[in-house]
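May I ask for a single protein's sequence together with how it folds?
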Amino acid sequence: FQWLGWWLNESRSTMFDQKKSTNYHLQFTNEIGAGSTVLGNLEGNGHFRVGGDFIGNITEAKDSQGTLVIDKNGVLKGDVHYTNLLVAGRIEGSITVDEKMEVYPSAVIRGDIRYKILDIHPDAKVDGLLSCAALDKTNSLDSEVVELKPNKKSA
């Protein structure tokens, strides 16, 4: 399994390298490149990459099931609601992820996060309330109210 360890280390270290594509396993429907600034709200359809600055909210189109990637140099100031989210850059705003969120070591997040699956790598910086949506769906047993009566001493 040495090759597996090498592949995991190699893919994580180069996945967000400036010289290479952010995540070469995804075909991005749209990208905001480094040096670009976008103001406004966006409804994304499919895989979307932010390599520049985006000021506004990003939501995902219904039935899209895509992945939003905030690149190492990407900055998002606004709220996010997407199926999957990979963060190597900065986000300032509330985040809702329907499936999986991965936060890389270079990431800085300021805002509350609602997720189903969350993977935060060492050295990533997250400042906000974490809320697991998967816990909402677990069947919790209704608690019973038990009346306690004082115990009578018998002589």
Notes: The CA atoms of residues 40 and 56 lie 5 Å apart. Residues 2-14 form the longest helix (13 residues).
